[in-house]
Amino acid sequence: MPTPSTSNPTAPISGCASGRCGSSTQQIDELDASTAQRVQDHPCYSEEAHKYFARMHVAVAPACNIQCNYCNRKYDCSNESRPGVVSEVLTAAQAVKKTLAVAAAIPQMSVLGIAGPGDALANPERTFATFAELSERAPDLKLCLSTNGLMLPRYVDQIAAYHVDHVTITINCIDPEIGAQIYPWIFWNHRRVTGREASEILISQQQKGLEMLVERGILVKVNSVMIPGINDQHLKEVSRVVRAKGAFLHNVMPLISDPAHGTHFGLTGQRGPTPQELKALQDDCAGDMNMMRHCQQCRADAVGMLGEDRGAEFTLEKIEAMQIDEHAAMGRRIALRAAINAELAEKRAARHAASAQVIALHRATVSPGRPVRMAVASSTGAIIDTHFGHAKSFRILEVTADSVHTLGTRAAAQYCGGEADCGEADNTLARTLASLADCEVMLCSRIGIEPWGKLEAAGIRPDGSHAMEDVASAARAVWQAMLESGQLANAPAHQRRA
């Protein structure tokens, strides 16, 4: 089931395994028609859409009005893939020009967001100047912004006036005592405020802003950074409260605490959660809230499909040389979007019919085998096209006799500025293996002898025999082979070791 390549708009449009995360296929089908239309081609708000539609962030917001202990902004960095990092800061005019160039080259692009590298609303002139011009010249694009929420109540009316339909607020706590451990200071009313007082102000503004956005019908996604020992036991309450106030989606993300990034938490040894801890918390929150599990924790200048970074193709120097027909490009985007959505609608209808048949069969039979968790190296999520050693992230699947569910994505251990700069070469593979410890299979296009052996030693079976095949079909084939060879009679290796 290939996903159209962003570099080839004529590629086949076809489906995906149904997901159970984010706004999954089932959840979208349960939405009212208006809301479903607003999320069906938004790659962050729909787990299904992120396999078909692209987004870009324009880095027009360098300043920030709070300090988070997990953040260290970098303005000219091409080596790190995390929030708060960009290769170049843009003026509003440059951002508009870059957006129109990218949207002409990538017709799957449906969303333009402002997500830093600081805070969108700490840079209101640049942010709203960008939205104002794009709403005129590319009205088919969805406009989004991300904010820490401190200035949100002041700008809600302006956000609504520019038809910014999706807003992400980062809310890590609703308890000021916990907040004081995350935020050393905020800048408020022309002064720096610290400690509990700073957190009280920030939390109050976030909650007020959330309520105001919901009153205006704007979809709100809440991002929360899971910090073990600080807010991990608290985030379920956060999820319950923001849902009660009308937030549409909750995205619990793992703390990135690599010392090489220079953040306070990274330098002081604060660890991030294990994949198992993150999933357990997401599962706990899912009882109260729609959860996003396909987040890639993108850069503030990300371009392309989620998980892709095509920013190097669209530097200011390169876009100056591009000839762009804005109206023709918009026509191509609208036509492609309509075709994709029509095909997805047909596939949903077919799946519903198949599901009804499967439910009926399940009343008389029990599916054989047990679930198998697999990691996949894929640049798009649809095709197994990535060398194990080149993967920036791995898609995690849970495969059963009846389904292939996407559980989320996990970042591969990455170098910062190259192995020599960071001295991390010896640890990179070990960190990747630790992040995949609950998987039994690694599907990739190719893999070297050394990592092959270490994966096997860790109880993860490498499999490069399905290179360039559809992810879901390959996963089903591997699962069936494991069933027929008797490998599913026992518990997974990581459970036997526990």
TrEMBL record:
Q: Which residues form the Radical SAM core domain?
A: 50-299
Q: In which domain of life is the source organism classified?
A: Bacteria
- Name the InterPro entries on file: Aldolase_TIM, Di-Nase_FeMo-co_biosynth, DiNase_FeMo-co_biosyn_sf, MoaA_NifB_PqqE_Fe-S-bd_CS, Nase_CF_NifB, NifB_C, rSAM, rSAM_sf
Q: Which cofactor does it need?
A: [4Fe-4S] cluster
What keywords are annotated for this sequence in UniProt?
4Fe-4S, Iron, Iron-sulfur, Lyase, Metal-binding, Nitrogen fixation, S-adenosyl-L-methionine
Is Signal among this UniProt entry's keywords?
Answer: no
- UniProt pathway: Cofactor biosynthesis; Fe-Mo cofactor biosynthesis
Record carries keyword Metal-binding: yes
The record's family statement is: Belongs to the radical SAM superfamily. NifB family.
Q: What does this protein do?
A: Involved in the biosynthesis of the iron-molybdenum cofactor (FeMo-co or M-cluster) found in the dinitrogenase enzyme of the nitrogenase complex in nitrogen-fixing microorganisms. NifB catalyzes the crucial step of radical SAM-dependent carbide insertion that occurs concomitant with the insertion of a 9th sulfur and the rearrangement/coupling of two [4Fe-4S] clusters into a [8Fe-9S-C] cluster, the precursor to the M-cluster.
- This chain belongs to the protein called FeMo cofactor biosynthesis protein NifB
